[in-house]
Every structure is written in C-alpha cells, then in structure tokens.
Amino acid sequence: MKVRLPNVPKPADLAPYDTTLLAEIYRRMFLIRQFEQKVNELFLKGIMPGTIHLSLGQEATTVGACLALEPDDVITLTHRGHGQALAKGVTPQSLMAELFGKVTGCCMGKGGSLHVGDIAVGALPAIAIVGASSPIAAGMAFAFKRHHSGQVALNFFGEGAANKGDWHEALNLAAIWKLPVIFLCENNLYGVSTHITEVMAIDYVAERASAYGMPGETIYGNDPIPVYEAVSRAAARARRGEGPSLIECLTYRRGGHKRDDPGTYRPQEEVEAWFQTDPIPAFRQRLLEDARFDETHISAIEADVMQLLDESVEFALSSDDPPVALALEHVYA
Amino acid sequence: MHSPAVERDTTRDLTIVQALREAIREEMRRDNDVFVMGEDIRIGGSFLFTLGLLDDFGPDRVLNTPISEAGFVGLAIGAAIQGMRPVVDFQYGDFLFTAFDQIVQQCTKLRYMSGGQVKIPLVFQMPTGASGRGAQHANNMESFFFHIPGIKIVTPATPYDAKGLFKSAIRDDNPVLFCVHKHLYGSKGRKLVESSVSRTHVPEEEYLIPLGVADVKRAGTDVTVVANSLMLHRAVNVAEALSEEGISVEVIDPRTLVPLDIDPIIESVKKTSRLVIVEESNLRGGWGAEVAALVAEHALGYLDAPVRRVAAPDVPIPFAPVLETAVIPDEARIRAAIVELLGG
To answer: Which domains does chain B have, with CATH numbers?
Structure first.
C-alpha cells in the first residue's frame, strides 16, 4: 500500500455564506463529534448494546453534504451512519434511544446502530450492506423524476462500495435514465483494514464517473464548504433534469472500523498527518477569524449542544424497551 | 344432433399470458404509479407478458433495463419506497439469484428494521420451472424464498387465477413473487401443458382474487392432493383418470404459498385421511415439507397413512429430455403415489 497524505487546499472563503448557515454547519459538526464521543464512552462502560461504527473525523463531509440539500430531499445512510443521520436532521434523542434499542428510537429499537434513520426528515433508515444502497437511492430518484417533485436523492457510500456490482449497476442506471441522484463517496481510505491502494488500480473513485457518462470530482472532505458547494452544484444539476453526479470527499476515520478495532494497521505517518486536519477545530478557528463570529457566540453553540446531548442520553435511558410483541410487527404492511 | 344451447362460449377462454396482459393493462390504466421494467420487455419479454405494452403506455412506464438485476431490483425498491408500484419482469426466475441481497436483505427487511417507516409494494413477475433449458434456467424460485419473512409468493396455475391474483399482487403493499411456470404461459409458439383447467374462462368484468386463499380445484373423498403451478395440471389429469377407476381425488391448489391457506388442506385431510403433496421443487426443504409438517401438527390423528411427497430429487435439472422427464414429477409418479397410498 501507498501512504495517502492529506492535500489540504486553501480554505474556502466564508464571506459569501450567511452566519445562520455557518453557525448551523458548526453546530451539526460539533453535535456529531460530541454524540459519537458520548456513544463511545457509553459503549466502553458496557451500558450500550450492539456494535458501533463511529463517524469521528468525517463530520465535515456529512454536514456539508446534507446542509446543501432541501429538507424534503432524501439521503441513504451507511453502516457508519450516526453522523449522516444527525447531519440530515434526525434528532439526537431518537438516535440515542435507537442505539439503546428503546421503543422511542427512530426505528422503535428494531434497527439499532446499523440501521438508523427517519424518513420523515429525509433519512431512509441505513442500509448496512456495502453498495446495496446505491440502486435504492437511484430508485427514489426515479420516483422523484416520475412525480416531477423536484426532490433529489443523495447516496452516501464509502470508497469500498465502489468495488461492488450493485454500485456500478446503480451508476449506470442513474446515468442512462438521467436520475436526480448524487453519489457521494466518503473516501476514508480504508474498507475495515484494507487500504484503497490495495483494491483499486486508479487513484480516485471519481475517475469512474466518466465510465458512466456523469460528472465526477474529488474534493477535500474535511472542510464542509467545498463539500457544500459541490453538493449544491450537483443538486442544482439534478433538479434541472441533467442527471446524476459523483462526488468523492477525501476524509479520514479518527478511530478504527468499529469499537474493537484500534486501527493499528494504519501507518503512523498517515494517521498523524490526517489527524492534524481535524475538521472541527479547523472550522472553529475559521469562524473565529471571521468578524461575524466571536468566542461567546461559538461557546453558546457548544453549550447548547452539550445540553442537548445530556438530554438525549437521559431520554434514551429513561425510555421503555420495546414491548416484546413488537418483534412480530412490521413484517408485512 | 349438436345443440348450440349447451355449447359453452369459449371466446373468453384465455391462456395465462393473455390473462396477465389484461391484468397489467387494467392496473396501469387504474394507477399511474404502476410501471414495468425488465430485460427486453419492449419486445414482449421472454414469455411475451409485456407484448404491446410499450405502444399502450409509452417508454416512461415500460422500461428496458440493462442486464443489471441487482441494480434494477434495488431501483424498484427505492421507487416503491417513494410511492410507486413497480412490476419487475424477470426473463427467468433464476436470475433473481443475482439480486439476492437486494431482495432478501433490502426488500423484505427495510420495513421491519425501520420500525414500519416504509412500505415496498413491488411485484416480481417471473417464469419458473424446468422446460428443456438445462439447470440454470429451471429453478422453482418459490421454495428458495418460501423461508424468508417479508415477501409473499404466488404460484398461479390457471388463467382465471393468474389474472385475479396478479391484480391483487400489484395492489398489495408488500413485495410479491409472482411465479409462473414456463409451460403455463401459453405464449404463442411455446408449449402449453394441457389439462381441463389450462385454458379457463376469464370474465370481461373486473375481479380480484385475494392472496392467501387456496382453491379446491376438484372435490373428492378418498385422498387429498395438494399441488401448485404446473403440477396442479398433472394432478388434475391424474384425478380425472382415476375417477374413471372409481377413485375420488380431491385436488387443492394453494395458489399462494405465502400466505399459505392451510385450513382447507387440513379440513380436506380430516375428510380423506390421506395426503399427497406434489411440487416441482427439489424435495429437501421444499414448500411441501411445510405443508406436511402443518398437517402433522394439526391433523395427525386423522391420517390413515403417512404423508407422501412427490417432488424432484435433490439434483439440479438435467438437460437431456429423458433425464428432465425422469426428474420432474409426471402423471405416472403422481398416480403411483396416490394408488400406493390407497393400498393399491
């Protein structure tokens, strides 16, 4: 394998963006970071059941992408879906309750960490089989197009999915039928422990877009602004009826694949370089450098998030388990 | 002299493919969200189910797909989640295996694991069964999917049933596998297995047949035969022949395997005390095993003889006509099982 170091571009100019959007970007990124750290803590304490795939480090990509969408646009989520869910607007209360398997969870406790989502906010409960969500996202886009609804579907996937047949079939179908779908790759360089250079003979996933006749671009994914801009362009294109786009966001997991994986297969040089690109302190610093924000403003956002998080844990822990009869429901409509 | 008064009007005696063509047209006219996609369907598909559909409904609702079964099944799932009612036409049921994850892990589970947030109304129309094409175009898909919660399975045997069940399948809010034996479509130029119920009267006026209701195709008192799809016709032919020998066979078609309407089968067994199950699937783990188990659980005391299953042996389907014929249950095997059960 080759070490892939981050290539950090000059930060995008914040001036064109209003403070409401910038504050919301920061709030959601900070919420995801704190949520995931809390989940990790609860998990290590042995309180939380199941298995957990944390999205620490990938907050800028998920938030930048989701905030570029309209509320009634729909995303598909991956097995690493907590951040995607929060970014699209799933409440931390219902998400935390779901992770605890409580009846108040977004899936009534029947999905768990691997299947979080709330279709009411445009987050189709997560599909945890790599690559399988891509054709489903294309299908939702198919319905949007037929219904002339103006909605867009955004398919989150990792770079590992780009080696699955379902993914290739989905891109081809979306391209031939010009479907309003955005294929958004969170390229964190690793499928579990396997480095991208071991499993792909090209440098970037986005190169594959041309094979299907759609635009593809690779961007730095640890800054929410370029992600926001790329998704905004792709969504506008989709709404104009010009079809799908592939956007590859380069990012990095701050931990292993899942709870019991320390990620020691990653070269130290790569880990250290990427950890220095941590999107949250970087974006915080840039807000502070913007005359429209100050420490008081940002601290208030952070305090609100911490309170919301405490409430979410309290909500989850005090919620009821699902009634056992629920195991037999929702098999058929 | 021939009396016209007793001559039955045969103008509406259709084949299954004719009945299905009517059903899909009626449903597409009724509901704009119904559309059909599949390989080569604009020229009619492999058994001409979609013949002429493009002319009637246009390219937006009759879509030729690439050879991408996982892709277009996943696409149909997504479209269904967003309110459409896709009918996915498979050239051969066997090709479902290339979309197995999409069907088993996505289609049947997204509703369940989301706590009921979505519903997936989606019909898979497919030719199944052995028909001289060798092992990879011969599977009876119903038994593979019979084990899986979250999907319904329809295996019509007659044109009347096919039309009514297909319309119900399209209106159902769940995924439905609609399995039609290749020898039953009756598409032009293709072999149609003949029995007294292979061309049935299909009324002009609309009707639906609910999923999950078995049908007694022939009443009898000596032995109960449960058979579906192609095997139903063979069972009916055997029953008709045996009646001339004084043996009264009751033939029941479950019509849908999921939901399985077991009550009429149990009631019949209580009457006849003997049960033969005929299926084209491989014997091991076929749907017939479930019927046998249910009868054992609910009516064992009524049985005067062990339940007999007539099925394909546990081998892939061979090509040579003589071998295929040897593997697939034929009328001689069905007859032998019945006669043996009756102590003949």
So the answer is: 13-201 (3.40.50.970), 215-341 (3.40.50.920)
